[in-house]
Amino acid sequence: MERPDLKLSVRDTFGIESSLTVPAFSERDDHVPEIDPVYRFDPEVTLAILAGFSNNRRVMVQGLHGTGKSTHIEQVAARLNWPCVRVNLDGHISRLDLVGKDTIVLRDGLQVSEFQEGIVPWALQRPVALIFDEYDAGRPDVMFVIQRILEREGKFTLLDQNRVIQPHPLFRMFATSNTVGLGNLNGMYQGTQLLNHAQLDRWSVVATLDYLERQQEIDIVVARVPQFATESGRELVESMVALAELTRKGFASGDIAVLMSPRTVITWAENCEIFRDPLMAFRLSFLNKCDPAERPIVAEYYQRCFGVELEDTGVVD
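That's the Cobaltochelatase subunit CobS sequence above. Prediction below.
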């Protein structure tokens, strides 16, 4: 289907107090993400993403790791039945991967050279939402490939083909980043780059996604690991989330160099089911990632939330 044939209510679809409606497709294809029924939408970030879909804005979602930036875009796309392709801009993604390259193929029993389009020209010609993950980790030569299509009607030139590609009217572009182009200031995100300000300026909407409020995070962990949907299980999850909040405050004040994201809390809960021991699961899910010099601080956090001295278990020297 080439055109959206539905109008969805933002209030009914995303649970956000708004009278807005957004275009959507009635049919799904293989590139539409699966719907996560327990996903919780941040109102401001959701409206920013919806502006990207409905008004063809270039939207960047910024925030610390584990806040669900990429998932947020995918879950909006899932409810709109909008095809979505996600590209991780790690150091191995090259200009040729994005643009395309000549390859040798067999045709009528003969080897011939044939140009194969990269992900950018492929997506640009279709009603697809293209997500660049870890945008601030992209190599400079790769970033300049993207710069031209950041403009709303930006055409894309394939020099090898002497061809100019006109973007599909329903092509959309999003990105996620940890640092908003400021580089690795605190040592937490090795490999991130300083972004060209001329390029950063082309992102017409920049939204910030923070960690959830405590009760929302508890609800999500319980929804993800239904075994904790009991009174005692919920109490355990409350203590886990309280510990995660202490690590985030400790990171913000410079006491520790790592923090516990909601993703890590969910992993910890899942590992509790595997090992039947919250302490062992905590060590394997988070504590072993910490610098040995910082483990006494994390042990203090654990003691405050669970009433257990980690030193007595031999976990911390």
